Amino acid sequence: MNDPNDLAAFLELGWQRLTRGVVDRRSAARHPVFATVSPLGLPEARTVVLRAASRGDGTVEVHTDGGSDKISSLKVNPRAQLMIWDETAKLQIRLSTSVTIKQGAEVSDRWQNVPDGSRMAYGASPKPGTPIPESYAYTKLASRDWFTVLVCHIESIELMQLIDPHRRAVFKASEAWKGEWRVP
Ligand SMILES: Cc1cc2nc3c(=O)[nH]c(=O)nc-3n(C[C@H](O)[C@H](O)[C@H](O)COP(=O)(O)O)c2cc1C
Q1: Residue by residue, what is the 3-state secondary structure of the chain?
Q2: Ligand 1 environment, Cβ below 6 A
Q3: What is the CATH number of domain 7-113+144-182?
Q4: Which atom, in ligand 1's list, is nearest to the CA of 34?
Q5: Angle at CA of residue 49, ends 47 and 53, nearest 5°
Q6: C-alpha 77 to ligand 1 mean position (Å)
Q7: Separation between Cα atoms, residue 167 and residue 184, nearest integer Å
Q8: Pairing relation of β-strands 147-161 and 167-172?
Q9: Rounded CA separation 64/73 (Å)
Q10: Which of 106, 116, 123, 127 is the most exposed place for a label (fewest CB within 10 A)?
Q11: pTM for this entry
């Protein structure tokens, strides 16, 4: 490591590890934990695939089924935190975001790029989460109508690195990503 106090270099490392997740199926950032708050105010976390990450726009994207419970939650509280533990870099990345839900014509470009085999993930009858009498008592619809893109606008990035000694910093969009060190 060069200067351990170099905030810009630390943020650069975070973005390097994050953007790698979009292209490298085996990288840690491929599968963030995506946490929301339920309409009852309860925490709910699940694994997702990181589909896009843009440092310029300050956004990351996740694709999901528009009928899933996370959509009901995001309609009430459009906030999500994405969390990644990247063991190679010994780095925990936490993105606090505000989420825009996009469907239909707005996301037809993304739908065109979803391989046929992966379209199964979008649309189910009955809806995802519905109790069913047997494990396979459902049909996957592979439906463009249910294909939903969650555009997550990053408000802050927290990096925690488990090197010796540990380092932790928070970078906020509202402060032009300047960043500040925090006690780990
Ligand atoms: C490795 C892995 C990747 C997943 N990727 C996604 C994904 O990209 N989008 C998604 O909506 N669900 C994905 N899931 C399923 C979610 O973890 C979750 O079970 C599902 O979205 C329903 O969550 P909800 O009821 O809280 O909305 C993935 C699960 C695993 C294990």
Answers
A1: CCCCCCHHHHHHHHHHHHHHHHHCCCCHHHCCEEEEECCCCCEEEEECCCCEEECCCCEEEEEEECCCHHHHHHHHCCEEEEEEEECCCCEEEEEEEEEEEEEHHHHHHHHHCCCHHHHHHCCEECCCCCCCCCCCCCEECCCCCCEEEEEEEEEEEEEEECCCCCEEEEEEHHHCCCCEEECC
A2: 31, 44, 46-49, 62-65, 68-70, 128-129
A3: 2.30.110.10
A4: 17
A5: 125
A6: 19
A7: 6
A8: antiparallel
A9: 13
A10: 116
A11: 0.97
What residues have CB less than 8 Å from 174, skipping those under 6 apart?
Answer: 155
Length of the chain: 184
From first to last of its 184 residues, what are the pLDDT tens digits of the chain? 689 999 999 999 999 999 999 999 999 999 999 999 999 999 999 999 999 999 999 999 999 999 999 999 999 999 999 999 999 999 999 999 999 999 999 999 999 999 999 999 999 999 999 999 999 999 999 999 999 999 999 999 999 999 999 999 999 999 999 999 999 9
**Per-residue tokens: 57:** 């726009």
> Which residue ranges make up each domain of the chain?
7-113+144-182
